[in-house]
Amino acid sequence: MKTLIKIAWRNLWRNRRRTLLTVASVVLALVLALFMRSMQLGSYEQMIKAGVNQVGYLQIHSKGYWEEQSIDRAFFDKDSIDAALKSTSGISKTLPFLQTFSLASYGNLTKGVLVDGIKPDKEDSQTNLSGKIVKGDYLTKSEHSVIIGDKLAQYLKMDVGDSLVLIGQGFRGITAYGIYPISGIFHLPSLQMNSQLVYMNLKDAQAFVYPYQEGLLTGISVFLNDPDHLPQVKKSLLTKLGKHYEATSWKVMLSDILQAIEVDNVSGELMLFILYIVVAFSIFSTILMMTMERSKQYSVMISVGMQRWQLVLVSMIETVIISLLGVLIGLLIISPVLYYFHENPIPLAGSMADLYLQFNIKPVLPFSVKPHIFASQTTIIFILSLVSVLYPVVFISRFNILNASRH
Questions:
Q1: What is the pTM of this model?
Q2: Residue 28 three-state SS
Q3: Which of these, 17, 106, 144, 360, has the minimum number of CB atoms within 10 Å of its CB?
Q4: From CA 125, how far away is CA 53, in angstroms rounded?
Q5: Residue 239 region, left (φ>0) first, then alpha (ψ -120 to 50), else beta?
Q6: Would the CA dihedral through 322, 328, 331, 334 be positive or negative?
Q7: Domain MacB-like periplasmic core, which positions (predicted)?
């Protein structure tokens, strides 16, 4: 075997230009494939992470709330719910919230808004909402105030210290009404959220929609230590909570984002498929030329006693060496580039930035460096290179020694 490896190595470097061109085609294919896939999957991870950071991996609602999303589908927080959440392993954090639609008014101006009752400290630890305050102060537990988006403040011509009037439908048919001073103005990447979102303390929101009893919620966001355990956690929670509650997965809540990812992923896989075809023909044509040029050499080697299967093995070793060289060089070239862009995402502008902002995602282009990306693309390119060895195997098995010696 050692002798065959030496023969294969020397055969490769008898024509350095041809070998280097083949290696370069493998390198180029791997670099392009890894760059494209890392960029795509990095964007998908960012979109999903941004969405999950807002809604959680699961949300607990009363039965039928997600389909209707009405304040009448709200439920009262109970000790049994808290006990079920605390006794379920894999849960890292829970965020109770109360959301309802209302009419916001100031002076002669009005606008429909989404009122989001939150626990300020827990929400801030999850989404860094206080870091998005551009004017005034963030909410506190005891403060009877609200914070609004800068676009909403601009539309209503309001400033910090002004009083916002909210009128809407409360729980069980009552009228919700309240006047709240503005303690702060925030700015989020999403224009829609800046124009329609009002945050207030959870207790104030509960008193706003139903002042007769404490603890009203429309949902509880559940965050996990390991996202892979989502099915087990969901099943366990539903068993403990009973038939009057539902657990909605992030895949349902973020279905719009997932659909956008699927559409984009198809186009990316199509481009990779075209790239793989080009690379496969490039490598195959080189192997074809190399095999035809060395037909006389093969006939001489068989004439002096080498077996055909040994020649086949030599050709296979040559292809493996070329593939390994191309893959290793490609990884050495592209890995530092991907890690750099992973730490320093490319900023986006124009229509692409606007598209990201619609989903409340920071307009940057991150790169993923997950090990499975390197493993999958390296394996595909390596297999494509090895497939080309089929031609010399068939050629050596069938070629005529006398004809090859004459030509």
A1: 0.74
A2: helix
A3: 17
A4: 11
A5: alpha
A6: negative
A7: 22-237
